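Lab manual, section 2.4: Encoding a predicted structure.

Procedure: take the sequence of the chain (517 residues), apply the prediction step described in section 2.3, and record the output as structure tokens. A sample record is shown.
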Amino acid sequence: MTSTDFFSALVSIVSDLPQEMPAEHRYKRLLDALQQSFPCDAACILRLDGHILEPLAIAGLSDDTMGRHFVVEEHPRLANLLHSREPVRFPSDSELPDPYDGLVETSDHLLHVHDCMGASLYIDNQPWGVLTLDATLPGTFDKIDPIEFRAFISLTEATIKATHRIEALEARVIKEQQVAQSLVEGHRKNEIMGNSPTIKRLKNEIKTVAQSYLTVLILGETGVGKELVARQLQTQSSRGGQPLVYINCAALPEGIAESELFGHVKGAFSGATTNRSGKFELADDGTLFLDEIGELSLTIQAKLLRALQSGEIQRVGSDRHIEVDVRIIAATNRDLKEEVAKGRFRADLYHRLSVYPIYVPPLRERGNDVLLLAGHLLEINQRRFGVKGLRLAPDAKQMLLHYNWPGNVRELEHLLSRASLKAIMDQGRDSRTVIIEPQYLDIDGQKIPEKSNTSATTPQPSMIPDRNITLKNAVDQFQQELIADRLQTHNGNLAAVARDLDINRSNLYRLLKRLSL
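Recorded output:
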């Protein structure tokens, strides 16, 4: 190696610093520059994660090296490198076992008498990992200039530090996007509407508990607005400027639930091609809203409990503990006390979550609030459907007041959307005011029959409501009506609806989202 080769390698490293590239590519290019600068057959960059050294980039070693974790105490050469602030070169006949024995790309994959050296890598005066070099021919490293090698180590540390800063900026961008999304959602649906005594009590309770640090468990039937309560708790708290990170536990397959909650490291499982932050990390300094908490499996419940108890999480595939400061808000439509009694929910997790339970009343307990909400929803539909005015007929108001509302506010929203469209189709979009009559509501399936002069023996028309409708829209309409019927039958219990329709719960959730149910 000549000085020209060395400086050419340094230039390539410096040129890479401002370039946008994945961290693993940056580390691999460091090893390319290393082999250009110094004679070696194998090299590796390993990062310290607790008491484990994890390979991040390799050269001259078998591919399966990347999937290995080296316990520092079990590998004295790596321990020596890690505990020294100066480069270390081991004697060619050293009796210390080499961690790469069996992994080097030689004819027998073994390292016999050979040259071995390396150095610790420090970032901000903290041990970050090690860089190792191996040469199969003893005496190869006699040619290495110690000053040049130290310079290379310093530049490697600078590259790693720059990579960390880039990753930190990327994480900050993701977090700020979460904050922005929370603020937009909070502005869009910020107010809990209603003047009934039960809603006034709920608003007062939210105002009181929001400023505390307590974990909150929101209880209530499906469709009562538990997510809106969670957003109010976040908005009115001292964490209001931080993200509210939402996760629907009912839509989490058990195989990915741990990764979604706690994140994972590259190589943790098939398909984990990069490091990924979980919801806990994204919610750091903010609030994590665990909706449908009663749907988590007992296995994931145990891991969630550990995180809540310790205030620390571990990404899947990593031994490193990450401290997080997260306020937890959970919600469920299940009776968790009954679930605990039946062995389907952990008692210790239940007590950890229900530090302060908040009950959201169903719509049938809110009296005239249903008309106030209806007015608000009709105003939204008026803008959405491009009509001048939407009003409820007096008889329609009475129907709304006397209906039991098993689907609560969500059912009211969907019912009024359908009724608005039916009224618009009959009365015309250009009408000064479109009046929603009782027959458009279809409450309890009761319809006012249309007037007809046809006899009872006249063949009935096709079930297709509009012969111009597309197949996709017809299928969507049928699915929407079928699922809405089952939701009403089972009082919004998604697990029961999924069983009734013979589909799994995650598919049902996707259908609900796609069909806006």
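Check your result against the sample. The domain at 3-166 is CATH 3.30.450.40 (Beta-Lactamase).
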